[in-house]
Write a structure and sequence with these properties.
Blueprint lengths: L45 E3 L6 E3 L13 H12 L5 H12 L5 H26 L4 E9 L8 E7 L4 E6 L4 H8 L6 E4 L13 E3 L1
Parallel strand pairs: 3-6, 6-7
Antiparallel strand pairs: 1-2, 3-4, 4-5
C-alpha cells in the first residue's frame, strides 16, 4: 500500500507537492489469514437408459480423496501428532477452535493410520540405510502416552545424514538390535545403558 503525503504543503500552504519516486521508509506488518476449511462436495447422480432400463451411476473424479479429510488437512494432522505430540482429543479440539470443523476421535485416528501407511516405505528405507552406515549415534528416552501405565521408549539412531526413530515397548537389548540390526558392523556411539553390551568392544564408543 502506498501512503502519499498530504497534497497541501504545511509550510507555505500551496497545493503543489511533487511525490518522490522512491519511498523514504517501508513498514511491514506480518499477519496470517483467518483459518478456514475449504469443503468440496461431490454430488453423484444416477441415470437410467430409456431403452433397456440400465441404471448408470456417476463417479467421483479420480484425484478426489476417498475419505472426508483432504491431503493438506491430512498432512496438518500428521504434523500436530508427530511433530508437536498432540493427542487425538487435543487435535480434535484444536481443529474445532481453529478451523471451526468437527471430527470424531475415530476419524483423526484413521487419518494418522493413513499417513503412517504412506510413510512406511520411506521409514523402512531410512532404517535400511542407517543399518549400513559406518558410524551411528544411538539413544533412547522414555515416551509416556496419554497417561497410560505401560511406558514406551523412543529410540533414535543417527548417521551422518539420516535419523531413524521408532517407538518400542522396552529399553532392552532386543530393542537395540531391532534398531541397529543384529549384524551391524559399524561403529556405535552410546551412553552406558547396558542394552548395548552385546556390541563388540572395538565397535562400541561410550559418550
Amino acid at each position: 500500500m502506498d501512503c502519499l503525503p498530504d497534497p497541501t504543503c504545511p509550510c507555505c500552504g500551496q497545493s503543489d507537492i511533487f511525490v518522490h519516486n522512491n519511498p523514504f521508509y517501508r513498514h511491514q506488518v506480518h499477519e496470517i489469514p483467518k483459518p478456514a476449511v475449504d469443503i468440496s462436495e461431490y454430488r453423484l447422480f444416477s441415470g437410467q437408459c430409456r431403452h433397456c432400463n440400465e441404471v448408470v451411476r456417476g463417479k467421483k473424479p479420480e484425484n478426489v480423496s476417498q475419505g472426508i479429510i483432504g491431503p493438506n488437512l491430512l498432512s496438518y494432522i500428521a504434523v500436530l501428532a508427530g511433530q508437536y505430540h498432540l493427542s487425538i482429543r487435543k487435535i480434535c479440539s484444536l481443529l474445532k477452535e481453529q478451523l471451526g470443523t468437527t471430527f470424531s476421535v475415530g476419524a483423526i485416528s484413521e487419518a494418522q493410520t493413513k499417513v503412517a501407511s504412506m510413510l512406511t516405505p520411506l521409514h523402512h528405507a531410512i532404517r535400511d540405510s542407517i543399518q549400513t552406515a559406518p558410524l551411528v549415534h544411538v539413544d533412547e528416552t522414555s515416551h509416556p502416552r496419554n497417561g497410560e501405565e505401560s511406558l514406551r521408549w523412543c529410540w533414535l539412531v543417527a548417521s551422518e545424514d539420516l535419523v531413524y526413530e521408532k517407538i518400542l515397548f522396552s529399553r532392552s537389548t532386543h530393542s537395540a538390535k531391532t534398531m541397529l540390526g543384529k549384524n551391524y558392523s559399524g561403529l556405535v556411539v552410546t551412553d552406558q545403558c547396558p542394552s548395548y553390551n552385546w556390541l563388540k568392544p572395538e565397535q562400541h564408543q561410550l559418550c
